[in-house]
Design brief:
Blueprint: H1 10-21, H2 34-54, H3 58-65, H4 68-81, H5 87-111, H6 121-139, E1 142-143, E2 149-152, H7 156-171, H8 175-193, E3 198-200, H9 204-218
Antiparallel strand pairs: 1-2, 2-3
Helix pairs in contact: 2-3, 2-4, 2-5, 3-5, 4-5, 5-6, 5-7, 6-8, 7-8, 7-9
Length: 225
């Protein structure tokens, strides 16, 4: 989920262009900071995990891929602490989420055995993720009756976090059961990401997930490959 959402106005764009014309350095250099480096690390982890999955190293791909979640959390924290939040950072964050929480789970799902007709779900899932991210960038967050900040639709980060619990669990199960489990996951999250339901930004079930993920992935060390 983007943690650094900033709308860029026409004046902002003109200021950026004017600033870059005065410098001989590549324009991208103006955005090099720790927060954007963490976001970029998320993209690198996603690509590495995809390549590992394509070569049959599913266990390792899961461990590398899950690193995208703490990257998504800490890039926003660092940006706020260091006062380096920007429209560029928000857009970079959304693009990283599209890869790490949209494309990567679909690739991992395929490597885990979700093939055949059910593979259509692996197309629907990242499509739902990018639409959900685009909607968030446009609409932002809402507040519920208790004043809590909420997302409309399941955040892509939450969907990915659930995946990193479901996927290791599936590896302990027979292939046919794993197939059904993954199919149910992708159907449910594809629908929920663009649903009208409110998901609180801070919730008890999210804290449980952060504990469940390392336990689920750690259990793979005891699974015979």
């Amino acid at each position: 989920m983007p943690h650094r959402r900033f709308r860029r106005t026409v004046n902002d764009r003109e200021h950026i262009l004017a600033k870059h014309k005065k410098s001989r350095r590549p324009p991208i250099f103006a955005y090099i900071n720790l927060a954007n480096a963490i976001t970029s690390l998320s993209v690198a982890c996603s690509v590495c995990a995809i390549l590992l999955a394509m070569h049959g190293h599913t266990f390792t791909a899961l461990w590398v891929g899950v690193a995208t979640i703490p990257c998504d959390v800490f890039d926003g924290v660092v940006a706020r602490k260091r006062n380096t939040s920007s429209s560029f950072g928000g857009q970079l964050d959304s693009l990283a989420d599209a890869i790490g929480f949209g494309v990567l789970p679909a690739v991992l799902g395929y490597s885990l055995g979700l093939t055949g007709a059910a593979a259509l779900l692996l197309v629907a899932y990242p499509l739902s993720a990018v639409w959900r991210l685009a909607y968030f960038n446009e609409a932002g967050m809402t507040a519920d009756a208790h004043g809590r900040q909420c997302f409309t639709g399941m955040p892509t980060t939450l969907a990915a976090a659930i995946f990193y619990v479901v996927a290791p669990l599936g590896l302990w199960l027979p292939a046919q059961v794993r197939y059904v489990l993954l199919a149910v996951f992708f159907v449910a999250t594809t629908l929920l990401m663009n649903s009208p339901y409110a998901f609180p930004k801070k919730s008890f079930y999210a804290r449980i997930l952060w504990l469940a993920i390392p336990i689920a992935l750690g259990s793979l060390a005891f699974l015979k490959r």
